[in-house]
Records
---
Amino acid sequence: MSDVLDTEGFSKSISTTTFLKLCESSVIDMGPPLSEPEGDTNEYYIGRKLKEVFKCDVEELVQRSPDEVFVFYGCSKDIVNRFLPHPHTVELWRVDDEFVPFLLIHDIDYYDRIREEDPYKDKTVKLLEYYKSEEVSSSVGTDDSKNHFPFNVVVFSDEEEFSDRMDGVVVVCGEPGSGKSVLSCRLSKHLKETDNQKWVIRIHLPERIQCVNGEPDAKNLRQLAILCGVQTDGIEFFLFQQSVNNGVSFKIVIILDAFDEISEQGRDYILNIVSSLNQTKVSKIYIFSRTVSALQTQIEDRYIDEAVFELTSFSDDQLDEFVEKYWKAKGLTRISGPELRSAVKSTVDTYREAMKGNKAVLRNPLLIRMIAEGEGSSHVDQETRQYTPGYRSMFDIYRNFANYKSNVYLDEKLRLESHTFRASREYERARIKDEFFYKLGLLATCVIFHDIKRDILRADELEAHERLTKEVADGDIGYGIVDGLIEGVIPRFIHKTFAEFFAAEFLFRRIKQNPSLANSVLKTYKSDEYEQVMSFLEDFAAASSELHSAIVREDDNRHLLITEENMYHPDEFGRTPLHIAALLEDTDVIDRYPVSESLLRKDMFGMTPLMYADKRRKYRALNKLCSLLSEAEIDWAKELPTVFDNLMKEKDSLKSVLYIAVRRDLCSLLRVLLNQFCRKRSEHHRDINSHRVDVDSIRGGLNETVLFDVQSRAAIELLLPYCDTQAVDEYGDTALHYISDLAPRLCLRDAGFYEEVELFFLYLQVDVPNRMQDTPLLTCVEGGNHELVKLLLLRSRTNAKDILGRTPLQVAVKEKRPDMISLLLPHSSVHPFEEQSQFDLSMPLKKLGRIFSHATGTETLVSLYYSSEKLCRIASGKKKEGTLLDAFKALFPYVNIDDESNWLAKCIEKSAFEGETYKTVLKLLLFRFDAVSANISGDTALHTCAGIGSVPGAQLLLPHLDIWATNAAGMTAFEVACRRHRKSRDVANLFRRWADNYICWHDFS
């Protein structure tokens, strides 16, 4: 209690009775008790992993260290190879293969196995997952806006590592049924058990949000206390205030569960609370939600720094473990040991085979739990399976589970009503089953469509719902799927997805009976909140057609079902297979679909395939359909109302459909957008089409136009009549700068990319610096695109300098790019430029700079083709003499020498070489320079050797020099050596022996 700051406030907040109780207790337990996972969940719980994703740059591949291994996942070999540095290619991983730096896997479970393999145990193995959406993603105002590399680095954490994270706000997302609520329960208990100073508050938002009365105020601590279940008076509220505002006596941790299950207004209120608490002493906030993309945007809009995790599905190995534990915990089997494991493996393998094209469904914890329950019941009485494993999708599992539950209810009901005559038995079965689905469907519809239920339900159905709600409160209805009420008002389904399934089933039957309901249902397609309900609704409608069902569940062989008969066959909503393909953006089916008249055919909702693609913002499907309808007479504004509205109103390029079409290279869609809704830049078109969109008015975060993000020649040709080719962004970059910067991240192995650049050359100034004085050539050299540099060299100055005074060649050396150095050097001059040096050896080559430091300006390099790799190794700090010697041999012929009389002596004095390497260098020097030359002080190279005590140098020079030659001070080399006796004794002795031999030879001659 010593941590309490406001003693006066404390005394007012606590009664005498409470104070005495506190004095007698060693523990203060504040707030509502933490909830446990329901039932026996802990008995069959499997530890989970969470995935965190980070941006990755293609430069990490280019500058890979020998100890790094990159494992790619989620795409084909062709996509990976587009981004690998030449000459590397990716290899499909196989067990016991030799070491390969770039690997491809098709099952994410293989990642852990690779790390355990001998060739990779001591390596840094990075997992790069393919995110197609990353090709069009960008972050305003950051360098990431230029990053087209569609891979993200994935890092996995177990539950303990996750709970130890220090981030202030943590978002945990996961697909429906992935176990987010169970994890939030376990997390709350773990945090409390590891630190008694933590006041952990777990809030199940759908239940607690109803408790907030009046106008929500994110800064109102009393409202927050009500939301958290904390008492709003007395000692508990006092300590809550102190902990929030001052961080004492408790460290508050708030866990917000089921964020996606509350209304939009409620979500906005909760995020405002998070933003407000982020400025207080609250230790940590967790948000558990089904979807994360919209949530993350909303959080970032409030300038909250958050860490985002995704709860992963079960691995293949965990499926068997879970089913075995579940059967044991539920008492659903009478077998054990090897017999049980065999039964488990047989059951799971059957489903693996049935769902081999859709493993993600089987790995969902809630779905495998439903399978385990249905299959487990058959093992109790040794009966045949309850489930038929012929289905392949999430919908099939829910439908079969619902049928299983209805059969359980049906059998129980019939046993209770065994007096019924056999003649009416079948009628009773049908009635009871209809009653089961009707009651659950009506309850679910009111839960999911709570805010718009009066638009969907009739008056008699609303009255029936009130009666059913009372029955739920009394415990008369549940079926093992509904568990009481939330705050006495809203039925609590055991999982939201069950409510979505039964709501979809209810709507499916209602729409068929009452087509006027179609308009109300159609409005929900615009909202992400109802996405799962609409998905189930499409499944129900498609169930009557094999082709429709195959498209919905993305069956690998669906294209084989496209026959003349199936092409015209509608589903229960009057939709052709093309409607479904457009709705789900199945471009493979659209490509193979030959019936053009279906393109404008309307279903019972009055929608064409084009309208569905527009409403659901399925832009790739729109692109395909636009190409098929290029010659048709269509009112495009009417067919594409969502696109039209976006294009006319949205000026932020990141949100503009025009930008998306350009970035994704959707040229057919782009052609329609430009031709139908935009105006060209000529004065004539500005006058007659003033109501149309000015393409240049759509700008990005750096004030760049859409022309800066083109991906193909076709897109450039479409855009040029509509765009200002002289436009620059806020840094002075032109569209060509962007192309130069993005080149390493694009598909550089496609010839079309270079056609795109050459087309730019016709319309844009090539050799133009931006505000940092970077020309496209400098940008491209730094980016490392060899082929693009070739194109730019023909049109650019090679002596242009950036703001740091670096030429393209200097940038290439600094970036350690041998191929770029080799390419640039032949385009350089032998002589330095009048106003600036071409190359400064002392900057990138400090070691060799000692040798050449006396050359004029240390400035000349001409052709380094032979030694570019060596040059980069030296620039990286390698000091092997062999490498230095190779570089010296290559550089020496091209060094610009203005005073050859002093060169030999200086090189001897400044040499970084020793031993035999030193002798080799001196021999090279003697081939080029006259040994008898002397500097301004009259010192020859022999005088220098005498001064520094270089015996090898003297041995090489003596045959070429007059030993009696004197310098300006009248001293011979021998006299210089004697004067520095301690340092040059060996040299002096060498000179004495040479002088004796010289005298003898002279006398003899």
---
Amino acid sequence: MPTKRESGVMPDGHRPFHQDHQEPSLSTLLPFRKPSGGVVGIVQVLSSLLFKALVYIFLRWIPTSLASPVIPALYLVYLITSIYRDASIRAAVTSHLANSRAAAARDIQQLADKVEVTDKKIDSKSSDKAKSIENTPGTSNGTQQSTPKPATASYADVAKGAKSASGASTDKVTQSTPSTTTSAKHHDSRVHGFSIFEAIKALVFGSSTRSSRLNFYVILAHTLAFAVFLDSFLSPYLFPSHWEYNLAFARTGALGPTYAKIHVRYPPPELASPLAALNASTSPSLSFDNLAADTSLRNVAQSGIIDEPKPVELLVKYRRALNKTEEEDAFRKTARAYGKNYHASPENLWLNGPIITLRADNDWTATALVHDLWPSTTYEWALSQFVPEKMDLTDEVRIVEKFLVTDSISRRNFFTTWPDPRLSTYMQSKTLGSRKIAAGADSVVDEAEIHVEANPLEDPNHFTFASTSCVKPDFPYHPAQFWGWNWLLKLAGIGTESGGISQRNRIPGFDLMYQRAVARRQGSHPSLRFLLQLGDLIYADVPHYGGPETSAYRKLYRNLFASESFRKVFERIPVIGIYDDHEVVNNWSGKDENSEELEAFAPANTAWKEYIGDANPEPLEQGENYYTFQYGESAAFFVMDTRKHRTHHTAEDDEDKTMLGYRQKQDLYRWLAAVNDTVAFKFVVSSVPFNTLWGGELDVDGQKDSWAAYNTERLEIAEVLRYVPNTIVLSGDRHEFAAVSVHDTITEFSTSPLSMFYLPVRTLSQDHGDGKHGIDKLLKYLPDGNHKWSEFEVDARDPYQPVVRVSVQIDGQEAWKTTVIGKSLRKTQGGIGGLVRNLLESLGFKFDFFFKS
């Protein structure tokens, strides 16, 4: 029989169990080890790394068409492996927790078995200092005992509770005591928890962790990246502009001294909805030839539905925009120079120009030529239409003429015709004489004093234009333009300005060009007379190719012209150009390997003409796309078509391999002969580089897509150009800038992209192509920058030293400038006549018509 002990005192001098004993912590019983992922874990990490790398490259560097199958496949692989790994880790965690709790129960049972207990009650005074112990209810003598109060708990109750716990389930064990419950929760939190290092590691490598919550966030981050990729990939088809009824514009195309081209797109509003046809007055489909006899107006009003839209006819109206006295005086002087006695009136009447007929077959686009204009004159122009109008108090409908005004087409549009080339010699003698008088016979003329206005409107010997190529909206991709939260940014007033980061269908290159050429001019005319776009204005095959369908190409052009970035430029600066490869398909040739015509060219050419080609100067040959134009006697341009007639690049490079074709090359030679002695600078325009310095191991297209693959024909043309003074070649395509000298007499400026990627890998070298032999010499190489264009200020006011000042703009800043000094085309005059002429010019007299060179 056990001896009596004092209340609260254990044998052998031990302190009471309920005072000093601390139950074992569950978190120290079994350390958790995450199961090895094996092959699945390796695939998960590799797919995550490749997925994130390719998404970044696609959004910031190369939006290649290869991304469409690869990136979705990698995302799917990562998603499947992540779900599998998360499930396996979760099962391991559950098993670990069960084992840990079972081990804890065994420890408690072993501890309880070692305790000697009596039925004596623990003194309440001592028990007040102890922690309360919740005993598991049991039975005694077949009757249920009530749960004893903590103050009367006994050692027997503790032992019985431990024994019952050993046979109970794991869940009941964890509820046996408050301390046990706390330990279990702490252990669970440690098993499910994660550190900052683990979170960073999971985000970087995409690996699963023991935390289900962290795994969810990592998968969510990958899903968000995939959504951004889809947004960029599908962006041309996410805008309403790709629907044919949602785009309207009016712009000025090619200009000359006496003509202007007007380019219009205006779909009838009834295309948007059959309900719009009820308001037929807003969109008439009337013929100017038979307005009075048109009986369909009331039928349209009664039916409210137009089954098939009729052609829309718009009338171009124009008038001289002379608002200042000095402008009127200048106009009178010009009029007298033409031998006409004409006095301008501030109240100029509108003149009727050509009729533009818009049809569905042409995607509601058309071009009209306004001719018989005055040189160096600013004109205001607008579009008008005849609309039905209901008479008051009667049912009679009359036809009235109204100006077409929409959100996209302005009531007031302007263009300025080019100066008369016949005044070039007169203006040169005027400028030369005044400069000599101002400078004196022995002094040096300060070039800064001469260079005041780089783009005057009335001097045929002085103007500025720009060239560039390669345009893709929304590239490089900015996270702020992601569909969804860009609206939240707009509501917060972030990036809402024109060209702001939250705007969709944005082209930053055009935004920068507008700021420099228009906005900074503070109301003056633009600093550029025209923009020469050298191809890749759309990317039909990047990242998604819609097939050789005209409708697919038209969608991309509508998306381009719907961009507010582009609209700001083409409404103020005439844009002309030529196509390259991406307007059709990458690296295309007019003839394939079997010398057959490319199937995609016909539909692509139709769309290109509707939106670009028809607004260009007239082609030299019927049905062709290459053309020429001239600005005064200071510059002449030959814009080549380097795609339609080229032999496939895989053919042997001999005299039969051609890029231009026989007829175009002969037209080029005839043009060179015509302008050789009559124009100061000759600009030969090629969509691909004329030099051979691009190439290298990593440049796949540099040698096969440029003139380097057609070197036999290139050397033939270069041999002709080297004897034509003041020849400059303009090109693009390579997404870099380079200035190259060919034969020491031909200077090439290759500039791109305006809004596209550039490669961090250098692809141009003096050791490539004919650079090894010294024919092509590198002058300047500027590869970096997503937004590039070059500005050319042609200044032939001094006929003895014409110059072209070149300014290279990269990301909105001037990156490099140089001056090309041309040779004088005036023949040296000797004898008495030459001395008299020089004397009169030095005195400021303008008698060039007496002394013809």
---
Amino acid sequence: MMKRTRVVLLAALCAACLVAGALAADAAADSTDSPKVNEAVAGKSKGTDAAAPERENMGKMTSPSFQRKIRENAQKFEFQAEVNRLMDILIHSLYSHKDIFLRELISNASDALDKIRFLSLTDKSVLGEGSTAALEIRIWADKENRQLFIRDRGIGMTRDELVKNLGTIAKSGTSAFLEQMQKGGDINLIGQFGVGFYSVYLVADWVEVVTKAPGDKQYIWASGADGAFSVSEDNGENEDLGRGTLIKIHLKEGSEEYADEARLKSLVHQYSEFINFPIYLQSTKEKEVPVEEDEEAEPAKNETTEEADKTEDEDKKDEEDEGDVVDEDEEESTDEEKKPKTVKQNVTEWEHLNDNKAIWLRKPKDISDEEYNKFYKAVSKDYDDALTNIHFKAEGDVEFKALMFIPKRAPWDFYDNIQRPKPKANTPGASSPAGLKLYVRRVFISDDVDTLLPRYLSFLRGVVDSDSLPLNVNREMLQVHSSLKTIKKKLVRKTLDAIKKMADDEIKCKASDDSDSENSEKPSTEECERFGTFWKEFGKALKLGILEDDNNRGRLAKLLRFHSSKSPKNFTSLADYVSRVKPGQKTIYWIAGLSQDEVARSPFAEKLVAEGYEVLYLTDVLDEYVMQQLTEFEDFKFANIAKEDVELDESEDAKKAAKEAAKALKDTFKPLTSWWKEQLGSKVSGVKLSKRLASTPCVVVASKWGQSANMERIMRASAFSDPARAAMMRGQRTLEINPDHPLIIGLKDKVISDKDDEAAKATAALLYETALLESGFELDDAKDFSKRMYELIKEKIGVTADLPSSSSSTSDDEPAEAPASAAAANKDVGDDTDKSEL
């Protein structure tokens, strides 16, 4: 950072000097005009406008004539820079990972091979014969001497090209080659900025480039990135390349890892796995090698064992006389003797690293399921086959190819990482294999492509490959470009279409099963089960998409699945719910809770289920958040039946009759509702008659804009919940009572007869607290509730005695005796107690 700042300051200083010199020259010229100067001074002394001369000078400085005068009289300079320091800044500021150097060198080698291949289309002789004609890249290392070698059989470079391409920073040989080729050809070379080669100095302190172009001599370019380089003819110092380039890298101290076979193999797999040309790595492996027996010892062995052979022949003859009896141990020993002897040795061989082909370049109809599965396992490191694949080619404003896979199982840390910043692959913190990988012309660029795929679809595995994506100069990241939005939009649409197809297959299977007819178009068993597997693993991800992806919320809503009162065992879709609604129903009813059993027995759903309305059971933590975002589905509105003012979609006549009946009941229960509201105070906003209850005496409902009991529970469980904010968001609650329940009717009569009855007050408090619990809320005061419950239990079993006071309790040293009065009371329990009274 300091070095970059110094360069910028140096440039600014030069520019300032130029302007200052021009101003000084102009000032000197103006100073010769003495009358004007004297006049200005005189004017100032006489009390005239002192700022006028300054304004006049400013006007002169900004005039076109003044600017031309500066340009005509100014002395021109060129920016100066220390090349060795500039190289250091370039190398260490441009790239964020040292690993990049191998990708850049392999990409350059691939470009060189592409160039010779293009030329060979019109002149086959340029390829040469034998091994020279092989278009390949070979890598090997000398770990002891800290050296790395990369060789290609590409087009090579002449002496002048060495000087221009490697001796000039930001000079791209690929760009020059493209300019020379005919326009409109299908040529996709990687290099375009001319700085990729210099990334080698991230790990090297000295580099030699041995190269030979077709029909030219072999040359050596050498440099240590110290501001100088040398070019010389190769006078037999190296083997004759025939054609191509050999890069000798002398690794720095601390970069010895790049001479390790395993490390090199990992980097090639990460960055260059799908390069068009084969990449071979020289590796040493321990293998069992057969050992030839000493031929001179054979005659002696034969003489020594001649008698033994005769004995064996006699034994075999005896065995034949006795019958075909063969000893298994003898047979096994005979087989072992036939096996040649081996010894473990270190064998050096060339290992083909990029044998996985870029199958996304082919047409989907030409690729078998076996090839798809093999490719999926290679890119995802998964042992199972993929659930399905998404393979397409996009054309238009942005052209790219994509091959994506949906796994059968969610990565083990998928839901842990979905809300965190995603660590890059192969870096500390990257726990699972990267999802979607971005390639530009088969060269890996990045797997940190949040701009290409929303986080809720980050479970996808596969590749996106484009020939026209704009990259930054280091080719490590994408430039912000409108084409990225287009690519993201198409990737999301194609993914949702693939998920919808799995859902449609499931629907077809169910329809076929219900019709009990043989349908030739029925999907296979595997296709019928795919969406169920997907929903189990990635259902939460789609719900997260509802919250985040406004543009695709409608598409995602069609993929949601829930249990319901009419489908308690199997999942149902919103479309299925709509197909089963009652005549005139325009609302989708739902209730959220901890478990399906809890919501199925909820008092809020009693009357709706009894009258034939279907209620969705939402038991996932995200479900209620999802419903807050879904305002409607196919003209059906959503309603949480655990909140107030829930209206049933009844006929107008039924609504009118219910309204008249409610008015009469309201007047009847007015004494109870007013008295109960007075008893509860600020705990509730009101007490009113309920239209949703059947067998439950009362419930507590949240206000229309407040949090439900389930949402309050979720917010309390949050590690960073704010109690003050939670209290504000909670809103007011309403106590709804069932006018048909005997408890409510009895309490009404008791209140009408005596408003101050303590039993009525205790009963009302206990009913409210019980309703709180049954409605899913927490008690305001658990101690008071438990105390009332204990009193009720005492009355129920006829216990009238209280615990002895603390002052009358015995000491620890004296044995306690039961009070006679208590014993007598317990003995003569409750002949006069009304056990049925509450």
